[in-house]
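Below is just one:
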Amino acid sequence: MKKQKTIYESALDQGISRRSFLKMCTALAATMGLDFSQTNDVVAAMETKKRVPVLWLQLQDCTGCSESFIRSTHPKTESVLFDMISLEYTEVLSAASGVQVESNLDAVIENYKGEYILAVEGSVPENAGYLMIGGKSAKDTFIRAAENAKAIISYGSCASWGGIPAAYPNPTKAKPITKLIKNTPTILVPGCPPIAEVMTGVIAHIITFGEIPELDAAGRPKAFYRHRIHDKCNRRAYFDAGLFVESFDDEGAKQGYCLYKVGCKGPSTYNSCAEMRWNGGTSYPIQSGNPCIGCSESNFWDNGPFFTRRAKVPGTQISINPDKVGVAALGVTAAGIAVHGAATIAKKKYDEKKRGEEE
């Protein structure tokens, strides 16, 4: 049997220099939220571990997650596809099709039990008539692949929560993958779609440490879903100052004021949009002038209507009425001016009295 190459050896075969390889490992460490001192751990893993077989199922989806994935810049998509993993099955990126690619799916499930990663994009229809793949129901194919996988990565809000297919009235009886499989370690990476570097970062973590990353109570990797978008938002200062966009064509919109009153759900949405941003760190919806619609949260599609303000900011850290923020801020400012003024007058009188005594 031919000796399987390590990730580093595969990289060398692709013409990647040692220097570029180390830069890739450094970028991976940063993407995974690791300390710089842990870069050596990533390098050691890439030098010694073999490429991981990956099966990527697309169920009830729009292909948006795949489109996001292929736009990763840290690491680049080609580094992931050609060096880190062995993508054995995907409906979008596979050159093969039909019997050839379907037989490869079966071969991986049979020959690499407990070794491959299963990536799932799209919700699972309980009504088999709505989605058949290779003559088999999507539900049966998913369950068979999931039961034999080392871990499952749920890419996107459709696979994680049910997504748009599960929106009322849900004719396909769409369900998230966690409703159908319980015994295989599962990582939820919600978003519509998720950020590309979050998608690659999760795979990199499994390869580096041989285990799934630390998850929050909802099953999402803490490294990428530990903060609300509101906490890191570039418009947060305007929220605290009580400066809000009232309509998309007003002066506040031109000045970059907070979008909360026009429906921004950043205060209730956990994601890395404000930190990692999109398209190689270029921007994200709020920075571009569009309110967050909460696409990484459960049931976001039925929590509308979009672009309609909430009465209060949900959450334990902040619970205020935005209409009163500006008034409160002005009150604090006025109080500060008054205290400063009183202190200035007192100091002036003290100095005058002291000069009189000296004379």
